[in-house]
Amino acid sequence: MWKKVILMLVTIILLFSSTALADENRVWEVQSNMPNARAGVTVAQINGKIYSIGGSSGSTSFSDVQVYDPNSKVWTTAASMHTARTLSSAAVVDGKIYVFGGYTGNYYTFNGGSVIDSVEMYDPATDTWTKKANMPSSLASVSAVAYDGKVYVFGGLTSSINSVRTVQVYDPASDTWAARSDMQQALHGSVAVTLNNKIYLVGGRYTYSSRVYSVNLFNEYDPTIDKWTSKPSLSVTRGGLSATVLSGKIYAIGGVSPDAETNSVEAYDPVLDKWSVVPSLNNARSGSGAITYNGKIYVIGGSQSTSSNAPVGSVEVFDDSEATIILTATGKDTAISLDWSVYEGATGYNIKRSTTPGGPYTTIASNVTGNSYLDKNVSSGITYYYIVTATIGSTETITSNEASAKIESANRAILTITLVNGLEKEFDLSMSEVNSFIQWYEAKQAGTGTASYPIDKHDNNKGPFTERNEYFIFDKILTFEVSEYTIN
Fold it and tell me: Which SMART domains would you find in this protein's record (predicted)?
């Protein structure tokens, strides 16, 4: 009994150790500190520099711009905006930063200032700000994102502290505004990101009976047809969060959940159409800005606690380069061979296959150990598309790249082996398998090689086996016959 108990304890320790190893290279690193800590900032990246624009500290909003160089880890300043503001949103079009709306007072208590409709454009080449056409209405906590040369601005908060459903599109070329279909729900404090030619609106807050509530909503907007689609909800509510895209996934970072700042982070995988939890920030924060640059996520500023009015000055960086599964697929004579890199901490892998690129995928094997798999249930001439997901316990975590392969037309043969006792054995094999058998036989005839040779029984397999081989003893073989044919 004690042996069983010890074994169970060792298993539990190994599982937790494996999970720790999986996250070891994926923790958030505090890389730098802002010269002036701010909450309610908006951020943008141009030419390898991250611009932290405006924000507030205590009861004061600011117009200054703090610039971070992630390569040198050095902070500098740029020209200040014309208008001090917090709770604004920024987007980059043609190498210029556009800042939309905001609030001129206290980020934490939303008083002591006013909601504005001001739009300003920053040109890094001249280090100057230019006023542009005002928004159709004054709004704070809007969500702005650039798409196809225009800026889409979603929702926001009015001066009467009411959330709105409006979608406004700004055209920098003509400096004009146009309306689009309303959102499914009135929201402010969401984040808009683009992925695969769609715009996604992540999280947010809404007001009801003078109270503010965070949501776990996640919606997809198709700007080409002006249509909204509901997607899987976040695992927790998040208002005033930050969000960005890294390695084809959407990361939802921090925010208010439900009534206090959180340091939790989750990622949406569009292939699996699901959210999964990833390592948490070092500091809980809302009202921060997130930027992806050079394969890393940078989170800047924010509020650590709405009750303490304490802005967060640290810059946290997340690198998922160690959290990838590299998958390759190779077509063989009768099967497709899959090989992938090991994901530290994984207790197994799920193999998924499709006949169309991008899916939908069907799981063909679950909880596979090791890092290779041979898919024999394939047909010649068809291209198959695969992904592999890692599992830790019962939780599916990271997804590999998509890899494809197919079995080309090939020569095959019926190998008939007659044994010395008169018994005949027949196998349908690829010519490479037949040639391997012949090479073994001739080598053994010459006095070298093993005493027996295994032949894969392929479709004659029965039961829950990955492979069944029949072994032939050299001196028990009388004759063998090869009848070659071609498959298309």
Answer: Kelch
